[in-house]
């Protein structure tokens, strides 16, 4: 199956201009200068964001963000469970899930669920030992039903946590699909380390279809892969079926983040060429918007009606509110 997908990539359509482009309708400022990393929409329709905690602790690392950039701590009630939030996402009920790395990113790793209307914590799930190995560093989280899917960038693998019984498992560890095998490119230039060597990061981007049946994943430098979630959640399937189920879905440029809409259109922030990309469930590749600020974009979120995309950008820093064309 993977071989057939690789052959198909040789004939992929190029990214095409849309009939109707996306438009930046508003720039939401970030007055304190600490950029947002990931965003999500609550059940009440509020925008919530996650970012690095300030050194003074004066500004919240997870907060509701108003249209004028003003922030309100989230959850609304204090929670000692949140030590070092590094990613957040919304589930299909509009509850917000926060991935926490623990003190100084040394653990214990955990998930916290927050009600999307009352803004109060609903539950706390430590990541069990079977989801982790020495050097694990989780970088992405998506939720559907009773399962949480995570990307381990520190020791390349996918992990799944059963939210019903608290048990977890690792999958496709060190498979080529989760390894960064291409150099990252930002604003047209390769990203280099202090010694002048090109940097290639492992899997750190995830997205789910609306029905939770398909998981998309990739290292930032691409390509994009698709895998049936049934292969990860049904214990009757083994490693052979899981590896056979991996499909290279699309070659992509270096991405800062990606998300899916309710109609399963993938929206991707292309930091290599500073543009917003979309890839529909019909496999139509479009670039929707070009703007130099998108070269510093992170993980976006789309409103449930599919009309608006919010993109956090480090340059400024700010959040771009983007009006999307009809899909």
From TrEMBL:
Family annotation (SUPFAM superfamilies): NHL repeat (SSF101898)
Claim: Secreted is one of the keywords in the record: yes
Family matches, as InterPro entries: 6-blade_b-propeller_TolB-like, MRJP/yellow-related
Entry keyword Iron: no
GO cellular component assignments: extracellular region
Subcellular location field: Secreted
Stored Pfam families: MRJP
UniProt KW keywords: Secreted
Protein name (database record): L-dopachrome tautomerase-related protein
Species this chain originates from: Brytella acorum
Lineage: Bacteria, Pseudomonadati, Pseudomonadota, Alphaproteobacteria, Acetobacterales
């Amino acid at each position: 199956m993977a071989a057939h997908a690789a052959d198909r990539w040789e004939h992929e359509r190029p990214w095409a201009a849309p009939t109707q482009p996306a438009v930046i309708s508003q720039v939401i400022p970030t007055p304190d200068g600490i950029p947002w990393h990931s965003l999500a929409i609550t059940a009440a329709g509020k925008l919530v964001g996650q970012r690095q905690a300030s050194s003074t602790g004066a500004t919240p690392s997870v907060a509701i963000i108003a249209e004028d950039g003003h922030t309100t701590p989230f959850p609304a009630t204090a929670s000692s469970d949140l030590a070092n939030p590094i990613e957040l996402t919304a589930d299909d009920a509009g509850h917000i899930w926060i991935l926490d790395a623990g003190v100084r990113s040394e653990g214990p790793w955990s998930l916290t669920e927050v009600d999307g209307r009352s803004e109060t914590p609903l539950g706390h799930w430590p990541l069990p030992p079977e989801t982790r190995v020495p050097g694990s560093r989780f970088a992405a989280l998506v939720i559907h039903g009773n399962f949480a899917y995570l990307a381990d960038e520190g020791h390349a693998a996918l992990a799944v946590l059963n939210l019903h019984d608290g048990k977890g498992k690792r999958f496709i560890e060190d498979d080529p699909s989760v390894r960064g095998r291409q150099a990252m490119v930002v604003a047209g230039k390769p990203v280099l380390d202090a010694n002048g060597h090109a940097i290639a990061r492992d899997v750190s981007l995830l997205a789910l279809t609306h029905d939770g049946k398909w998981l998309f994943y990739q290292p930032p430098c691409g390509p994009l892969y698709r895998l049936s979630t049934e292969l990860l959640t049904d214990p009757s399937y083994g490693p052979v079926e899981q590896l056979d189920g991996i499909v290279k879905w699309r070659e992509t440029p270096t991405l800062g983040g990606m998300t899916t809409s309710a109609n399963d259109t993938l929206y991707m922030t292309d930091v290599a060429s500073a543009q917003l990309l979309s890839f529909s469930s019909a496999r139509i590749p479009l670039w929707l918007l070009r703007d130099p600020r998108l070269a510093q974009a992170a993980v976006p979120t789309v409103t449930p009606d599919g009309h608006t995309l919010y993109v956090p950008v480090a340059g400024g820093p700010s959040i771009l509110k983007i009006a999307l064309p009809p899909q």
